[in-house]
Amino acid sequence: MSVTAPRLSRFFHCALLGALCLGAAAARADTFLVTNAGTGNTTEYDATGAFLGVFANEDQSTGGLAFFSSGNLLISNAMNSTISEYNGTTGTLVGNFASTGLNFPAGQAFSSSGNLFVVNNSNNTVAQYNGTTGAFVGIFANTGMNDPEGLAISTSGNLFVTNIVNNTVAQYNGTTGAFVGNFASTGLNTPYGLAFSSSGNLFVVNIGNNTVAQYNGTTGDLVGTFASTGLSQPTGLAFSSSGNLFVLNGFDNTISQYNGTTGAFVGTFASMGMNEPRFIVAVPAPGFPSQPGNQTVTPGGQTAFTVTASGHPFLQWQRKPHGGSFGNLTNDSTYAGVTTAVLMVTGATLGMSGDQFRCVATNVDSSVSSATVTLTVLIPVSITKQPASLSAKANATVKFSVTAAGTGPLKYQWKRNNVALKNSTHITGATTAAVSLKKITTKDAGSYTVLVTGAAGSHATSKTAKLTVKK
Question: Taking a C-beta distance cutoff of 8 angstroms, is the pair 76, 99 a contact?
């Protein structure tokens, strides 16, 4: 790794990476996590910039952060070439997620397909890993890099990597890893962190001249210097859910805040607890862009409650039975996916009808519950009292009736010889529980049945009742 002034120590340099732009706006302000190479830990800050303490400890130089969709947090460790997994809410170390194929790892990010991509600073490569198991898929890209650090993935799926030595941002096909070319080279001076804004433009930190440069996110054209005030050897950067930009300063161990539209310097956001900060991620409050809906199922059937969650939260489905209170579900023969976005219910029973369900999303910022929804288990339609056969003289009035049970509303259709009856001056109640025929003739004689239909298509047909017309 070459050294070009102004440079930080190798310990400082190798752990830095570009920011990961996190998702949609939340109901409340964000929580911020910062990796620190000087102390090998990750510190936490609230929405006001107040130092909340050490979130995660690791005895090696720390670099990039990336969240699983399930809510756990990955941190790259440059000094021992591993990626550690932490509980995304508590900061508890889960263990090593990956170690094969790493060489001074720096920037990392998950693609839309769920795989993890990691920049290797020492051998100028990008490695790819199974995003669930951590299994090494292989070297994804190995050309066009020279002292790479930051990594960001655009909405198109392509990868963008900052190169320190040749002052470029390289672009790679997000499917094949093919080197597309240098996306940007103008306006760069020892580029480190990079991030896409919600507008799609690319923002790159220049540690060499204490600036943040802005580029057209499609063409790579330099828009201009976005920010230059309040920066001191800037490193990682991230946009909050409100749209403001937050930049780490490696020299004075602070976080600077900027208006995300104009680049105006808002002020020093935080100054406590940092030691050679590398990477910052803004964690929005969890939310539910898509709420679950009520579900109806027949006895023994299967259905699903589905949510879409934001803020990289842990999910936990809860159930409230009749007369009870909400409690966490566990996976069993009835419920599956209790900590995922889709709760499957199998083998529903009538006793479950009316049970209520909700999903609770929790991350380092806060916890929120989804809308409460109800499971309705249909009572199948059944005939509890069959129509009786009748015998009457011509010109008499007769009535067939049926009694049915089941989840309604119940609908009726009387038939004669399997042909549906229609109301007329001669027939009334053809679509009710009782049908009457006035001034009957021999033409009315025959076999009468009624089809009773309930909710969700449940239905039953009565036994045949015969009408005999005497002359």
Answer: no
Taken in order of first residue, the domains within the chain and their CATH numbers are 10-283 (2.120.10.30), 287-377 (2.60.40.10), 382-470 (2.60.40.10)
Burial label, 470 (beta-carbon count in 10 A; 0-12, 13-18, 19+)? exposed
CB 435 within 8 A of CB 421: yes
Q: What's the token pair of residue 265? A: 């310097």
Q: Please write the tens of the pLDDT for every residue from 362-418.
A: 999 899 999 999 999 999 999 999 999 999 999 999 999 999 999 989 999 999 999
Write out the H or E segment, with its range, that includes residue 57. strand 51-57
Q: Which of 149, 259, 248 has its CA nearest to residue 197?
A: 259
Q: How far is CA 340 from the centre of its chain?
A: 9
- Name the one residue in this structure whose structure tokens are 């051998």: 123
Encoded tokens for 245: 């930009």
Residue 79 pLDDT level (bands cut at 50, 70, 90): confident
Question: HEC string of 164-211?
Answer: CCCCEEEEECCCCCCEEEEEECCCCCCEEEEEECCCCCEEEEECCCCE
Q: How far apart are the first and last CA of the chain?
A: 111
pLDDT tens-digit series, residues 297-316? 989 999 999 999 999 999 99
Per-residue DSSP letter, 104? S
d(CA 311, CA 363) in angstroms, rounded, equals 7
Cβ proximity of 108 and 87 under 8 Å: no
Q: ∠ CA 164-166-171 to the nearest 5 degrees?
A: 80
Task: Order the strands of the 234-239 sheet from edge to edge.
Answer: 234-239, 245-249, 254-258, 265-270
Band (pLDDT 50/70/90 cuts) for residue 78 is: confident
Confidence band (pLDDT; 50, 70, 90) for 455? confident
**pLDDT tens across 343-359, in order?**
999 999 999 999 999 99
pLDDT tens-place string over residues 21-30: 333 333 457 9
Q: Is 124 helix (H, G, I), strand (E, B) or coil?
A: coil
Scored b (16 or more CB within 10 A) or e, 183-196 reads bbeebbbbbbbbbb
